[in-house]
Specification:
Order of helices and strands: HEHEHHEHEEHHEHEHEEEHH
Strand order of the largest sheet: 2-1-10-7-6-5-4-3
Number of strands: 10
Oligomer: single chain
CATH architecture: Alpha-Beta Barrel
Number of helices: 11
Low-confidence stretches: none
Number of domains: 1
Helix content: 40-55%
Largest sheet: 8 strands, parallel
Distance between the termini: 28 Å
Radius of gyration: 18 Å
CATH class: Alpha Beta
């Protein structure tokens, strides 16, 4: 299946818009694993096992692995996720943004080395920074559009005088992703949960693209407002879906031996809240 087909199937099967972000910080691990970077795989695999039937996707953030020389553990984790949750797509959060042969190598890393189903990208260098990833049939690419950090205003909220209608930069990115850049229906957009009005604006400009929305939970985003602003569908069936990411709130729900059970409880509560917001 393509990434979008996998996403749609997982959303239906698990009744979920929730994405669990895998951002392992050994200093925050529970007592038996705490501080041990060699236990990153063990920690994340337990989280995956506890939540696999509650999510529409998983999103490992590559920096949390690379910083601890744990790329090998990430490879093992990707294999584990494909084995225990073969129908749940994996979004590699890498935010790559280079061009040419370098971008080709980054695409090879994401889709061949790690076997991800989708990847996050920075489109700042234009179409050249996106095209190499779309050469992989059926894979997805999420472009940073309106991010949740306050500093995003520095660029994303600036008007483009040279473009017809003088759209804000993030609006222009949304239009490109919905239109001329989306050659094979592989693109989605990253929009932060802390800006529900902007989520609604992006949805208006990109009515059919999947929106990856971080910022719910520890970052303060309103889960209900997020779904109402971004999800579109009828009778529970998505025509424009959202992938609502929660990382720290799920991963570190408990500092005890029950961390996996606690993660499952928080994930279930979040999933149910997101589903209720579709009504």
């Amino acid at each position: 299946m393509t990434f979008l087909e996998m996403l749609s199937a997982a959303e239906r099967q698990n009744g979920s818009l929730l994405c669990v972000g895998l951002d392992p910080e050994p200093t925050k691990f529970p007592a038996g694993l705490k501080g041990d970077a060699n236990k990153i795989y063990d920690f994340c695999a337990r989280i995956v096992d506890a939540t696999a039937d509650l999510v529409s996707s998983f999103k490992p953030q590559i920096a949390y692995f690379a910083a601890h020389r744990a790329e090998g553990q990430l490879e093992r984790l990707m294999e584990h996720m494909r084995r225990v949750a073969p129908n749940v797509p994996i979004i590699l959060d890498a935010k790559r943004g280079d061009i040419g042969s370098t971008a080709e190598q980054y695409a090879k890393e994401a889709f061949e080395r790690y076997g991800a189903d989708a990847v996050t990208l920075s489109p700042f260098m234009g179409w050249d920074s996106v095209a190499p990833y779309l050469k992989y049939p059926g894979k997805g690419a999420f472009l940073l559009c309106r991010t949740s950090n306050p500093g995003g205003d520095d660029l994303q909220n600036q008007r483009l005088a040279s473009v017809e209608g003088q759209p804000l930069l993030y609006e222009h990115v949304a239009r490109l992703a919905q239109g001329p850049w989306n050659l094979n229906g592989q693109l989605g957009l990253v929009v932060g949960a802390t800006y529900p009005a902007e989520i609604e604006r992006v949805r208006a400009l990109a009515p059919t693209l999947p929106l990856l929305i971080p910022g719910v939970g520890a970052q303060g985003g309103d889960a209900v407002a997020t779904v109402k602003a971004g999800w579109r569908g009828q009778d529970g069936v998505s025509t424009g879906t959202v992938i609502v990411n929660s990382s720290r709130a799920v991963l570190y729900a408990s500092s005890g031996d029950d961390f996996a059970e606690a993660a499952r409880k928080v994930a279930m509560q979040t999933r149910d809240m997101l589903e209720a917001a579709k009504a």
